[in-house]
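Q: What structure does this chain adopt?
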Amino acid sequence: MMVKSNILPTESPRLAAQAILIEDEQSVRRATTQTLELGGFSVLACADVEQALPHLHAGFAGIVVTDVRLPGRSGLELLAHVTALDADLPVIVVTGHGDVSMAVEAMRAGAYDFIEKPFSAERLVDTARRAQEKRRLVLENRSLRKAWVNDPETPPLVGQSAAIERLRTWIGSIGPTAVDVLINGQTGTGKEVVARQLHAASGRKGAFVAINCGALPESVFESEIFGHEAGAFTGAQKRRIGKLEYADGGTLFLDEIESMPLALQVKLLRVLQERKLERLGGNDLISLDCRVIAASKVDLLGLAAQGAFREDLYYRIGVVSIELPRLRERRDDIPLLLAHFMCAAALRYGRDAAVWTPQDMAQWQQRDWPGNVRELRNFADRWVLGVADSGGMAVAVDRTTATLPHQLDAYERVLIERALTDADANVASAADQLGIPRKTLYDKMKKYGLSGGRSNAG
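A:
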């Protein structure tokens, strides 16, 4: 029944693929086991359903491959048992040649797929790998939901590369201390994720307060961070508690600290040294128990040499510092990261778990990803939504479940977004470019949740 093939084991599986095989014919059972093992699976081979049952539970991380016709309980009875345990546990049913009605019954009962005898090794392994990938995504999805319920404010540090393991060790060591920290890293490398992890590891009961220094106008910077008293300036009708004071007992995260005005760097330095602050327009010193984590995407010491950043502040906040790796320096983490982000996107958008092929993943691992993890996360969102960039064109990506109307809608949405971008959000110009009436374009924008268009050139 089985044929020899050129199937090779999967490359360094992150989690060993697992399969429970139920087949009563010994020679077939041995050949099928060997085929699955060559495909990268750890196989538990059983001669009947009774042998398999003790190993099946809702948290089983693998798949089930079962013949339909078995001594004692049938494969369909096993399928019913598995579905009752966990409806998302994939069961691949093996049917006899020409037994179409049995295959249809199995699919209606919730089987992941069926394979008709005789079948090739490639067909079995390809189906099993797809089923295993679906199972992994389902379990990742469940884990993600549980993590969000338990601690919705702390994003996980995803990855198993040497660089990420060192980072975890560093967080475990530095987190419980009170020392201020400087995080260096390119845009999108996860500086806020690390800051939140440090806050979680600190055990501090106060809030994690994040502020992007680069997004604050200089005119409101001092009031935003240090607070102000009523009457401190025109429009200051009542007292305002600043971010530093609000983070008392917790952690203040200052992202893009290189954007902080030099005059306020002096004031921040004094606060860090004395752990006391004065609100703008006030005279009272307010004691602080606040840990400060600063982050920068540039060389602060280099800026200090140019007079664009205070050197004394650099040495005060940089007592402990860490450089985050770029994504291309941890390519082995890309499958884990993508799986995590796609599961998160599926939850967020109410979509099914996304799928991909080994060829897709190999291509993604070779990309440069100049936007680092943030770019990868945005790509995962587009993939789950059914659209991703490929050679400058939009393509539907859920090849196993997306209907033709869904794929066409996804493609149409990207064309409309692109036309609006090219027309600088001018709806009339975009409609002309697309060759459709303006009202039709408005209707489609409403359908796809697109906004921000302008009705005329002005």
